[in-house]
Amino acid sequence: MASEKHLLLIDGNSVAFRAFFALHSQINTFINHSGLHTNAIYAFNTMLDVVLKKFAPTHILVAFDAGKTTFRTKKYDNYKGQRAKTPSELSEQLPFLHDLLKAYGICSYELVNYEADDIIGTLAKRAVDKGFKKVDIVTGDRDLTQLATDQVTVNVTVKGVNHLEAYTPEHIAEKYQLTPRQIIDMKGLAGDTSDNYPGVTKVGEKTAIKLLKKYHSVEGIYEHLAQMKPSKMKENLQNDKQQAFLSKDLATIKQDAPVTVELEDLAYHGQDIAALRRFYQEMDFNSFLSKLADPEADKKREKVKFQKLVQADIPAVLAGFTGPVTFYLEMLASNYHVAPFAGFVIGQKGQWYVSTDVKLLQQPAFTAFFADEKQEKLVFDAKRTYVGLNRLGIKLAGIRFDLLLVSYLLNPNDSGNDLGKIAHLHQYQDVATDEEIYGKGAKRALPEDVQVLYQHLAQKAQAIEQLQAPLDKRLEENEQDGLFKEMELPLAIVLAQMEIAGIRVDKKQLNQLRKQFAQRLETVKQKIYAEAEEEFNINSSKQLGKILFEKMNLPVIKKTKTGYSTAVGVLEQLRPIAPIASDVLDYRGLAKLQSTYIDGLLKVIHPEDQKIHTTYLQTLTATGRLSSIDPNLQNIPVRDEDGRQIRRAFVPRQADWQIFAADYSQIELRVLAHISHDHNLQQAFINGEDIHASTARRIFGLDQNAEVDPNMRRQAKAVNFGIVYGISDYGLSQNLGISRKQAKNYIDSYFQEYPNVKKYMNDIVAMAKKYGYVETLFHRRRYLPDIHSKNFNRRSFAERTAMNTPIQGSAADIIKVAMLNMQRQLKERNLQATMLLQVHDELIFEAPTKELPLLQKLVPQVMDAAVKLEVPMKVGYGSGPTWYDVKES
DNA sequence: GACTTCACG
DNA sequence: ACGTACGTGAAGTCG
Question: Which residues form the 5'-3' exonuclease domain (predicted)?
Fold first, then answer.
């Protein structure tokens, strides 16, 4: 006998139920980034850890109930009839328990027609028969205690899921003075309220135990019933005889269910760490994640050899390189435009040279090396590397591979930007994460021992080099090599150049606005205090809610998770009945401008060049768009006049220059017209119609040339937006403030008028289901695992995403192509004009006034020619002395 | 650090 | 019956 086998059987449903209520008080804090409740999954995971440690089983299975109907409901159709429906917050978690178990390497099992209890009863018996030394059962339910024997212990959760009460035959004898099998008789007599079967009238646990001590079993009781003294109880027993036997039968756990798994298949071989890590990331279980990150992990990582680079060796080292060279430049602080340099690593084929002295890079041999575009480089984050080297006066060319960009293209959902984490994602373990080496938050700093830094840098370089071939191969398999080589990689350089160029901001203008806003802010503040008859913090939605809805008793229109909503929509509805609502809106508007835009922008103006240098995130969004941070220059106010004034501060870098901007008109709807091949939608664009008016005519059944009143156009515009977002009647009704039914009518008529748009929507969802992802025109991918979710919300969200991503993503692709071509044109033509900003469908430039006539032709032409669609593109443009003055002409 | 609000396409 | 419009970033409050 090689080993003593020990089987652990877990009652999945009942433990999940206990787990759910164990953390029920914290249900609102256990929500992951996808909006899934995770409290039951979390507690279930804790339980697993506890029992694995406690029992150290050799074999495990978790049994689940298969469905509502079982052989018991056939015998007694009220079985479990009174049971409350499982809360949706719990049922949405159940599918993920299976994922968790799979990652744990634990078999889960359910059997049609049987309950988890019966699976457990059957396997417990089989295991004992097959010579297992021990069986432990974990459940939240005392029913299973009937299975206890010398070999089988039933562990019932008490208070939460981490404390177990072990029911052995001895323990049961002590507690009930019964044998385990008599538990069944007890249930037969006393019934079970939770399973909703009756037992005998007026007989509860106590009476049942008394009777069983005397007569041993239900059968025994009825054999001796005649001899019992007349009593109310005797009468009840007589009347309820059938019920008693039925209840006993229902309470009996099957030990011969047709379970199809073999005991050998339940052997436990441990967790799948990579799968578990993915799962914890998905659930946002950071504590489990960090426990998983084995504290010894870094020690287990293969050490990489490195040499400290000294100046004298540079020419020889560079001369010795053949083929691609890996280079990595370390900067710790978040903003790489100003972050101090921490060090660098360079090398190839496992030969790494490190240094903390970035001045070495300015040696002529190095600068020539970096500028040589024939000398291929492998990097992590080309844009950051380009900007960093630029700060050292070094030109960078010849990048051939960017680990960050490639990883993003392979799966834009993995939007992290830590080299170590990304490497681990691709099964490369021999590199630490930055958090492991530098720490996080306020504690983030260079390691005391410089050797630790060197090792980390060398490991990073090795990771880049090792991952290049396999990830390049995956790009090709996905037909994404073109997307990488011809779009994203060259774009990284263009973006770097735009960030470096920066945009000039006029401090005086901002300060002037600040004064003006401050005055108005003070006035409206006092007015609000007067109306509220007290002073309070208007910025606090909580305090504001109290004033509006408790003190002033205004009607509550909407609630948020935590209290009253005071959002714009709500205040607008209150406006007619309460002037304070209007004033709060004014206050909010001004406060936002003041803090986010005036103060916010003043803080980030570079003291030397008076410019703002944003950072574009090229590897963040799930759709392929860029984002802009520190500061965000993609959300500078434009819609309201007050906010629009901010744009007066954005000026050209030289007098006698102008700001020039060009934008795509309706690019997303044009993309939709292209990919759906919808004739009517295409025709509207080909005829150069006002697209929203055209849609209005169609969905409201007007004549071709009929006048469209502004309200109809507004509604049609909302429908068009809805279509692009992956429409739902509810969403549209909310947006337009109409009934859901009315919204549905609009959508139905839209689809009738644009049948191929409807077909596209159906087809793209079907594609997502079939392949698990959707694609843009340029093969950008987005995986949608939730498309198969049983959870309505998650699935619906995935379906809307499937409809929207190819549209938004293709539009993002198109402007990226335009940017590349634009930058080439500016260079080839030796123009001074500079591309400064991208705001999703528009490009902003600064240029000498004398170049404007050329730009007015060139920019629209380049943007227009970026891609050939089945419908024409339309590009608008304008210019002026400040960004504010740029209005389309 | 979660939550709410609001700026943009 | 379920309860959402798609994609972002920043500032403020509050526990």
Answer: 5-269
* Mean pLDDT over each residue of chain A, to the nearest integer: 91
Pick from A498, A465, A483, A485: which is nearest to A383 by CA?
A498
Co-location of A370 and A463 in the same domain = yes
Edge-first strand order for the sheet with A650-651 is A611-612, A503-505, A650-651
Residues near A455 by beta carbon (within 8 Å), at least 6 away in sequence: A303, A304, A306
A216: left (phi over 0), alpha (psi -120 to 50) or beta: left
Structure tokens at A708: 């469209």
Rg (CA), chain A: 35
A391 with A509, same domain? no
Nucleotides of C under 7 A from a protein CB: 1-15
What does the alpha-carbon distance between residue A66 and residue A112 come to, in Å, rounded to a whole number? 5
Q: Which nucleotide does the CA of A632 lie closest to, via C1'?
A: C9
Q: How many CB atoms lie within 10 A of CB A868?
A: 9
Q: For A595-630, what is the HEC assignment?
A: HHHHHHHHHCCCCCCCEECCEEECCCCCCCCCEEEC
CATH number of the structural domain spanning residue A125: 3.40.50.1010
Cβ pair A837, A830 in contact under 8 A: no
pLDDT per residue as tens digits for the range A696-733 = 999 999 999 999 999 999 999 999 999 999 888 988 99
**Burial level of A265, CB count in 10 A (0-12/13-18/19+)?**
exposed
- Do residues A803 and A761 lie in contact, with contact meaning Cβ atoms separated by under 8 Å? yes
List protein-proximal bases of chain B (any atom < 7 A from a CB): 1-9
Domain limit, last residue, from A457, A480, A500: A500
Sign of the CA dihedral A176, A182, A186, A189?
Answer: negative
User: Which residue is it, tokens 């323990």?
Assistant: A171
Q: Is the CB of A31 under 7 A from strand B?
A: yes
Nucleotide whose C1' lies closest to the alpha carbon of residue A733: C5
Reference A838, options A409, A503, A594; nearest CA is A503
Q: Which tens digit of pLDDT belongs to each residue from A441-454? A: 778 899 999 999 99
Which nucleotide is closest, CA of A590 to its C1'?
Answer: B6
Q: What domain count does chain A have?
A: 4
Q: Are A189 and A207 in contact (CB under 8 A)?
A: yes
At A879, the pLDDT band (50, 70, 90 cuts) reads very high
Neighbour-count burial of A296, counting CB atoms closer than 10 A to its CB (0-12 exposed, 13-18 middle, 19+ buried)? exposed
| The length of chain A, given as a count of residues | 889
Measured CA A379 to C1' B4 distance, in angstroms: 40
Whether A495 and A511 map to the same domain: the answer is: no
Instruction: Assess whether A411 (CB) lies less than 7 A from strand C.
Output: no
Stated in angstroms, how far is A423 CA from C15 C1'? 37
CB A643 within 7 Å, strand B: yes
Q: Which domain holds residue A149?
A: 2-178+254-266
Any strand C atom closer than 7 Å to A565 CB: no
- Asked if residue A168 and residue A150 are part of one domain, the reply reads yes
Q: What is the pLDDT of residue A246?
A: 81
Mark whether A126 and A112 lie in a shared domain. Answer: yes
Whether A369 and A431 map to the same domain: the answer is yes
CA of A80 to C1' of C2 (A): 24
Strand B close to A575 by CB, under 7 A = no
**Any domain includes A626:** no
Closest nucleotide (CA of A782 to C1')? Answer: C7
Identify the residues numbered 577 to 616 in chain A whose C-beta atom is closer than 7 Å to any atom of strand C: 591, 595-596, 599-600, 603
Together in a domain, A496 and A509: no
Q: Which residue among A565, A587, A612 closes a domain?
A: A612
Cα–Cα separations (whole angstroms), residue A83 to A28, A366, A410, A633, A646: 25, 75, 47, 55, 61
